[in-house]
Design goal:
68 residues; 4 strands; elongated
């Protein structure tokens, strides 16, 4: 099983977005061209929503590369 770490950022200026999009390396990580991926998330919890109440989420994610 893999561990996913996700960070989302807002890039308010178009110029900055294009500079980031063209960068070959970001924070020491090599970047590859992006691709479209179809993602379906199913969130699971107990009948009383105990996970949500505790501040957690249990997600099953299914994905496949989108056809071009």
């Amino acid at each position: 099983m893999s561990t996913e770490i996700e960070a989302k950022f807002i890039v308010p200026e178009t110029e900055t977005f294009h500079a980031l999009e063209a960068a070959p390396v970001l924070a020491g990580f090599s970047l590859l061209p992006g691709m479209l991926v179809s993602v379906h998330d199913t969130y699971m919890d107990t009948p009383g929503r105990a996970l949500r109440a505790a501040g957690y989420a249990c997600r099953r994610r299914s994905r496949r590369a989108a056809s071009s």
